[in-house]
UniProtKB/TrEMBL annotation:
Superkingdom as given in the UniProt entry: Bacteria
Keywords tagged on the record: Hydrolase
Domain Ppx/GppA phosphatase C-terminal: 316-486
Ppx/GppA phosphatase N-terminal domain boundaries: 28-307
Keyword S-adenosyl-L-methionine: no
Pfam families: Ppx-GppA, Ppx-GppA_III
Listed transmembrane segments: none
UniProt name for this protein: Exopolyphosphatase
Length: 501
């Protein structure tokens, strides 16, 4: 989430990433030197969060307590780092909880840093980024698969760029919970589980097959565990095939239970290993795979590289915003003018309103570029259409919370302040909304002679706007809009004073 409040943060040479998955929680810490990441520490705990997801969408007390105890341990390491150097994301199970707010607040208190819930599309992008950094690309397309606890991501890409991404509702915890909750393994249950996975793949498999690929890579715990079992049983040198997966499933059928000892299989992977193997077998069948190589890096390493890019101003979110603006035919000349004015106003009041330059500039600038996207649908109430698009479209690099902040600004840029649909308790976001509203007013129409020098001063909820008196007289529409804005801001307790000189 965007950190808008200014606070002194020490320079950091270390970065950390935490993946709150449905099966395991992972933490990884790294240092970068001369453009290279050096991994310093890894922690993994099999929290099994997905097993605690109830039918009503709530999280069981046991699962919540296990998770928070783990995060307390992670927090001992992470609290020493500045927030800009730490990225913590939640995936499928946290996406599925009806109201994750209470759990997220408790998690953040233990970690000392914000927690983001990311979409399946964003999860897939980060997985591909991590794998692409670990294994040098070959010529042509590569397909990357990651079997998590609650979801499976399938990504087709070329080089370092993902081209087609899907997040599917099947994972090692989810399949185990649905078909093997009693710990018994039967041919009937295995068949049902395999069919359920094939049904999940049915709507998406053809597009992947049509595009084709030259390399097949797998990532994360389930796939790496299968590769280790294949090697330990001398079925291959770690390369996964459909035949080796059939041998794994056959062993479970022979014994009839989940609690099965197998060479190469760790104790903490046992409870969910069959579920992951069945998902992988379905992937092989549906996508007609011949063999797969397991990659060492995945989501958390992707997080590290993504965070490194943000710190070095190579932010994928900027490209996502620009692509969305282009997709909905935004008038970029006007958007750029509004952005320039909004950032000019921000520079004058950032200190008084205690707004941090880095994130506030980005969020305000991106809102200025996107507030017009709804015009492609209809002019009437276009700000509502714009907010809906920004909230619900897949914006690569953005978490749900970041998109919500961006959508709130877009919604609030005109007319009455949307008090019912805006977090008015977030003073920093309210302040950015006010700046965007003022910038939009100054660019409502085309002003041929350009804008005058605009001076803005603030003191808590008092806003003083100073403009040349002659310019105000020559632009009666802008003056009328500013007078209307006085009433709108008054509705939320702010006082806008307009003075000429």
């Amino acid at each position: 989430m965007f950190n808008l409040s200014s606070s002194p943060e020490a320079a950091a040479s270390h970065i950390a990433a935490v993946d709150l998955g449905s099966n395991s929680f992972h933490m990884i810490v790294a240092r970068w030197d001369n453009g290279q990441l050096t991994l310093l520490d890894r922690l993994r705990e099999p929290v099994r969060l997905g097993f605690g997801l109830q039918a009503d969408g709530s999280l069981s007390r046991d699962a919540s307590e296990r998770a928070l105890a783990c995060l307390e341990r992670f927090g001992e390491c992470l609290r020493a780092y500045p927030s800009r150097s730490v990225r913590i994301v939640g995936t499928k199970t946290l996406r599925s909880i009806n109201d994750a707010g209470e759990f997220i607040a408790a998690a953040e208190a233990r970690l000392g840093h914000p927690v983001e819930i990311i979409s399946g599309d964003e999860e897939a992008r980060l997985i591909y980024l991590g794998v692409a950094q670990a294994i040098a690309p070959t010529q042509g397309n590569r397909i990357v698969m990651d079997i998590g606890g609650g979801s499976t991501e399938v990504i087709l890409g070329e080089g370092m760029t993902p081209r087609l991404k899907e997040s599917l509702n099947m994972g090692c915890v989810a399949i185990t919970k649905q078909f093997f909750s009693d710990g018994k393994v039967s041919e009937k249950a295995v068949t049902k589980a395999l069919i359920a996975c094939l049904q999940e793949l049915q709507p998406v498999k053809d597009e992947f097959i049509e595009r084709g690929w030259q390399q097949v890579l797998g990532a994360s715990g389930s796939i790496k565990a299968v590769a280790k079992v294949c090697e330990a049983n001398a079925w291959s040198d770690g390369i996964i095939t459909a035949a080796s997966l059939d041998k794994i499933i056959a062993r479970y059928l022979d014994q009839g239970k989940l609690d099965l000892d197998m060479p190469g299989l760790s104790d903490d992977r046992k409870p969910v290993f069959l579920g992951g193997a069945i998902v992988l077998r379905a992937l092989f069948e549906a996508l007609q795979l011949k063999e797969m190589i397991a990659a060492d890096w995945a989501l958390r390493e992707g997080l590290l590289f993504d965070q490194k890019g943000r710190l070095e101003n190579h932010d994928i979110r900027q490209a996502s915003v620009d692509a969305l603006a282009q997709r909905f035919h935004v008038n970029m000349e006007k958007a750029a003018a509004v952005e320039q004015t909004a950032l000019h106003l921000l520079a004058q009041v950032a200190s008084a309103w205690q707004l941090t330059a880095r994130d506030a500039n980005k969020l305000l600038g991106w809102a200025a570029r996107l507030y017009q996207v709804g015009l492609d649908i209809a002019h009437n109430d276009y700000h509502k259409h714009s907010a809906y698009i920004v909230q619900n479209v897949d914006l690569a690099g953005c978490s749900r919370a970041e998109q919500s902040q961006l959508a709130a600004l877009v919604l609030a840029h005109r007319k009455r302040f949307p008090a019912k649909n805006f977090p008015l308790d977030n003073n920093d976001l309210v302040h950015l909304a006010i700046l965007l509203r003022l910038a939009a007013i100054f660019h409502r129409g085309r002003i041929k002679d350009g804008l005058p020098e605009i001076a803005l001063q603030v003191e808590h909820k008092k806003i003083h706007l100073l403009l040349p008196q002659t310019w105000l007289q020559q632009h009666p529409l802008t003056q009328a809009d500013l007078e209307t804005e006085q009433r709108h801001l008054g509705d939320i307790g702010y006082r806008l004073e307009i003075a000429g000189h």
